[in-house]
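Note to self: keep these together.
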Amino acid sequence: MKSYTAHLKPHCPPVVLLEGWSWGAAVFGPFWLLAHRAWVPAVLFGAVVLLVVVLAPPGLGGLIGLGFGVLAGLLGRDAVRWSLERRGYLLTHVVAARDVDGALARLLHARADLHASLIGPLG
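Structure:
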């Protein structure tokens, strides 16, 4: 079982995010953050990585880049959570499930009032 965090905002569908390490963030860094709508962390992370790699001594640029990849893998999902909070979502639940669909199903089972946010006003 994996742990997921559920983020809610009034009149919007819930967002469910996996906890822990992200290979996508580790490999693609700021591009992964942009794909997950974490604009501010993506720009800051990209600028810092570029600045440090450019200013690093010739042999250390790759090693420092690798270190930033590890850092992105560890903190990428937290940056997405922070971005969700900036957009008005609140972390309301922690759900254990095998996958995202299972986590969403458990959330909807626990909170029947959220069905309307998934169906929409015309459902």
